[in-house]
């Protein structure tokens, strides 16, 4: 998720100070991804450097208000209109762990899948309960939308675990062990004398 574009989109509603932006981000994302206020200010500094926001008034309490520029507004609107390109090749710790375990002699891959399935089901049940308790109104809608995405991800993980179990069942246990390669890579750290 782009914190940068999210902050620009919020600032397109009107000037805000840092903590106010943090609170607005939480309200609009259902408080499902908390931001550190330092991250807000670092992002604002970069946005200012790039000419997308500018510092404006300081109130009686010392809050520095940030205002979006025309270029920032254009970037926010372009972001809101554009689809999100999903990254390919991202590192999924569970997929990597299962792939490595499936190639190690003696690894109990079925136990790993069973333990992960239990964890995933428990997480899914928690998300479903949380989504069912989301309050009405715009903040509740924001939270429900984010939770629905998380629920879909948890359901997909459970389907993937089923598929992985099916795939592993197709291979006899002896075929899963992958011995160390005898051919050595050409590069490496030389031994110290």
Written overview of the protein:
The protein is mainly alpha-helical. A hairpin with a 5-residue loop joins strand 1 (53-58) and strand 2 (64-68). The model has no long low-confidence stretch (mean pLDDT 87). The radius of gyration is 24 Å and the shape is extended. The protein has helices spanning 3-11, 18-28, 37-49, 70-81, 93-102, 109-132, 138-169, 173-176; strands spanning 53-58, 64-68. Strands 1-2 form a two-stranded antiparallel sheet.
**What's the rounded overall pLDDT mean?**
87
- Sequence of strands across the biggest β-sheet: 1-2
Number of helices: 8
Q: What would the principal axes of the Cα set say about the shape? A: extended
The total count of strands amounts to: 2
Tell me the distance between the termini: 49 Å
Report Rg: 24 Å
Query: Percent helix among the residues?
Result: 55-70%
List keywords for this structure.
single chain; 193 residues; 8 helices; 6% strand; two-stranded antiparallel ribbon; mainly alpha; 2 strands
SSE order and pairing:
Layout: H1 3-11, H2 18-28, H3 37-49, E1 53-58, E2 64-68, H4 70-81, H5 93-102, H6 109-132, H7 138-169, H8 173-176
Antiparallel strand pairs: 1-2
Helix pairs in contact: 1-4, 2-3, 6-7
Q: Gist?
A:
The chain has 193 residues and is mainly α. 60% of the residues lie in helices and 6% in strands.
């Amino acid at each position: 998720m782009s914190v940068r574009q999210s902050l620009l989109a919020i600032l397109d509603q009107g000037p805000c100070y840092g903590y106010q932006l943090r609170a607005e981000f939480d309200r609009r994302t259902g408080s499902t991804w908390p931001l550190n206020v330092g991250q807000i200010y670092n992002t604002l500094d970069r946005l200012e450097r790039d000419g997308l926001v500018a510092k404006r008034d300081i109130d009686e309490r010392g809050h520095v208000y940030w205002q979006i520029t025309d270029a920032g507004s254009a970037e926010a609107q372009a972001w809101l209109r554009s689809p999100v390109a999903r990254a390919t090749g991202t590192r999924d710790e569970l997929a990597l762990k299962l792939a490595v375990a499936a190639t190690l002699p003696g690894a109990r891959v079925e136990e790993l899948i069973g333990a992960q399935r239990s964890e995933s089901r428990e997480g899914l049940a928690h998300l479903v309960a949380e989504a069912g308790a989301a309050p009405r109104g715009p903040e509740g809608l924001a939270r429900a939308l984010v939770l629905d995405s998380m629920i879909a991800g948890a359901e997909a993980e459970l389907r993937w675990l089923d598929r992985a179990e099916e795939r592993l069942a197709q291979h006899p246990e002896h075929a899963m062990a992958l011995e160390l390669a005898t051919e050595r890579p050409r590069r490496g750290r030389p031994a110290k004398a």
